[in-house]
Amino acid sequence: MKLLMLFLSFFKIGLFSFGGGYAMIPLIQKEIETNNYLPASQFADIIAIAEMTPGPIAVNSATFVGYKVSGVLGSLFATIGVALPSLIIAILISRMFFKYQNHPLNESIFYGIRPVIPALIMTAAIFVAETSIFPNGLSNLSLRGLFSNPLGVIDIPSIIILIITFVSLIKFKINPILAILGSGILGVVVFSIF
């Protein structure tokens, strides 16, 4: 039963996601929380692992969650669940899409979907930032606690790594792969000191 639930959860994610893996992150988070697959605190770890491993983030996330919930079979069911809707849709509508690609209704649908994608990506970024920068979460954050003991509320080493990585990406335009590797090395150094 658990395997079927994993399959259906990730099938739903694959079916209703537009805009690639990053746009799927809020849907994955919602399914994980709704079905109690993993604690919410582990969601940032899922994103980090899915980012570091080769392949699409949605498939990597599904594989990781499935493995955590039901081992190798769980990872198989979750991965097939997230990938199957794309395969089915591609097979069913490929001919019709190219025939009606420039139809005004088709273009209007995609113009309506496009603004949702950045919103979904920003939602995922806010959630990951919340779990990375605020160790106790934003729901437990109070202005009094922030001003009376900012070091107990904000994870300073994470902010240091965030700023260094952001400046490196924007100002020096380093390769994102190098940014990930550098951030990992910096994390080992900073978190072993603090």
Automatic annotation (TrEMBL):
Q: Where are the transmembrane segments?
A: 76-97, 109-129, 149-170, 177-193
Localization: Cell membrane
Which InterPro entries would you find in this protein's record? Answer: CHR_Transporter, Chromate_transpt
GO cellular component, alphabetical, reads:
plasma membrane
Q: Which domain of life is it from?
A: Bacteria
Q: Which UniProt keywords apply?
A: Cell membrane, Membrane, Transmembrane, Transmembrane helix
GO-annotated molecular function = chromate transmembrane transporter activity
Pfam families (UniProt xref): Chromate_transp
| Topology relative to the membrane | Multi-pass membrane protein
Indicate where this protein is primarily found.
membrane
User: What's the family?
Assistant: Belongs to the chromate ion transporter (CHR) (TC 2.A.51) family.
This protein is called: Chromate transporter
